[in-house]
């Protein structure tokens, strides 16, 4: 066998060219393999972390709410303060102390129950979002319709459809026939859908009812014996009769005429 300078590495001249290392896929920082977390999941994870590690003696820096669940829903974690009996709405988070008496809700007996409750809510929320995601994928595949698959490109088409359902980009192949040359041309297209909806505005901070005044408002002067039913808090009030209806007198006359 006749050997050439390049037969030690291969039988072709191109085999002597050193192969370049393939570039590694750059993964975006801060993102995991799965889908991004929703706001509900992130809020539950933050709440779980606070309940596990907070002391429970600090008060809410944003200010608590004293609406007694009249303007907001009743709290599902601590609906009633164990110390003073204040009714708490859902704006009063469980890792903060009672806004009125300062009672902590995270003692050795209550903290494990709250942690278990939030963990269950977190699992249910994750399962719910996963079911909605799978349902959206199935609906997207149904919306594509029964597109005829090209021979030899079944795997690529299925991969493109999976990318269409799960990712923001959609890929598809188009087969065209030239009437003059009688040749078949296959072209691939990738479309990036643009959302037509405007960005949703940031949610407004819910209104928090301030605490009641420390001083009780009452009339400090004794009542007048001549006017025991006088309004001492607003003495200048005057009665204003309602306006008279001009048709009322005529209606009364007609009723009297019918009675006679």
UniProtKB/TrEMBL annotation:
Cited Pfam families: zf-C2HC5 (PF06221)
Membrane-spanning residues: none
A single BP term in Gene Ontology: rescue of stalled ribosome
Biased composition (Low complexity): 25-37
InterPro entries named among the record's database cross-references: TRIP4/RQT4_C2HC5_Znf (IPR009349)
Residue stretches of biased makeup (Basic residues): 251-260
Pro residues bias (residue ranges): 196-214
Cellular component, GO annotation: nucleus; RQC-trigger complex
Protein name (record): TRIP4/RQT4 C2HC5-type zinc finger domain-containing protein
Species in which this protein is naturally found: Pisolithus tinctorius Marx 270
């Amino acid at each position: 066998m006749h050997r050439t300078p390049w037969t030690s590495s291969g039988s072709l001249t191109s085999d002597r060219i050193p192969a370049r290392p393939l570039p590694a896929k750059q993964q975006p920082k801060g993102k995991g393999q799965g889908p991004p977390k929703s706001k509900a999941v992130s809020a539950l994870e933050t709440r779980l972390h606070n309940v596990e590690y907070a002391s429970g003696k600090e008060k809410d820096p944003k200010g608590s709410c004293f609406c007694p669940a009249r303007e907001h829903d009743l709290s599902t974690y601590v609906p009633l303060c164990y110390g003073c009996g204040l009714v708490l709405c859902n704006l009063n988070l469980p890792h903060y102390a009672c806004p009125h008496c300062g009672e902590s809700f995270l003692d050795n007996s209550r903290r494990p129950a709250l942690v278990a409750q939030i963990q269950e809510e977190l699992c249910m929320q994750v399962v719910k979002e996963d079911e909605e995601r799978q349902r959206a994928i199935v609906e997207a595949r149904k919306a594509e319709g029964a597109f005829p698959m090209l021979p030899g490109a079944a795997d690529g088409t299925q991969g493109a459809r999976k990318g269409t359902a799960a990712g923001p980009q959609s890929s598809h192949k188009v087969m065209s026939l030239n009437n003059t040359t009688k040749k078949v041309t296959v072209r691939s297209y990738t479309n990036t859908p643009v959302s037509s909806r405007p960005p949703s505005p940031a949610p407004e901070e819910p209104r928090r009812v301030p605490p009641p005044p420390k001083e009780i408002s009452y009339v400090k002067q004794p009542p007048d014996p001549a006017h025991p039913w006088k309004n001492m808090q607003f003495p200048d009030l005057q009665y204003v009769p309602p306006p008279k209806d001009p048709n009322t007198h005529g209606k009364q006359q007609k009723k009297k005429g019918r009675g006679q």
